[in-house]
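Example 3.2
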Amino acid sequence: MGIFFVYILKASLCLAVYYLFYRLLLSKETFHRFNRIALLGLLVFSGVVPFVEVTMQEAPQVSQTFLSLEDMMLPVDEPLGVLEEEPVRFPWSALVFLVYALGILFFLVRHLWSLGRMIRLLRTSRKERMEGGITLFVHKEKVAPFSWMKMIAVSEEDLKENGKAILTHERAHIHNRHSWDLLLAEGCIFVQWFNPAAWLLKQELQTIHEYEADEWVIENGIDAKTYQLLIIKKAVGARLYSIANSFNHSSLKKRITMMIKKKSNPWARMKYLYVLPLAAVAVAAFARPEVSNKLDEISDTKINELVSVVKAIGVENE
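Structure, written as tokens:
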């Protein structure tokens, strides 16, 4: 269990550093597809880097903080006689694990609640088949347009007044498989719900999705000014489905500015090479071959020992 928390901490720090790198250097560039792939790559990369091990005779100075932290988190084998003589200490690791598990449970329930609300809305809507295997759900009441997987939901009013632009926008989300990106980002939030970078990364990913969809709409013959007015008109409205691509997501100013912005220099993509030295620094900071040996030492027995300590404390308080 200790090694798991150490891994989560390392992955969280990597994600925070990589997100900050993206935000400062690349978030304002106009190559949206490249930015989207790179952002997903940074998400996966942050989960892989903590597994990389470098064999060193002595741990580098930059990793001393992590060494002491790991020593606190990892269980320590002590003689039974010592355990009997010393008073039982408060199980901080068990408390941390409990809070972490409750956080995962909370956000899982939140995710299922959002999914349930979306399914209920779709069930009460009129269904229409569209080309490409897309199903259109038309709702009588006013609802913010959104798409998920190969489904589009829109109100009858929006379909009559602005159907072409809205459907083109939502078809762009489906064509680019944006729903799969959101599922991956949600998965990251489940295990790193305490990490602000995980939430910011998902928000940044959704913003890129809107940039891509807006660009698709303009390229398919929709008048830019008319479309921008439509975005302003639909800016007000609740976004109740965290896993769906909402038409009114993201900042109006950002989306409109990105539509009229001059295309970035292709050489700006070279900025991503900065991630290589960042990865090297992370590997050096986390380098400790002893951690891999600890993986074999941690077993269900030791977790059971921790549970027995919690039970012992409960007995003493009775």
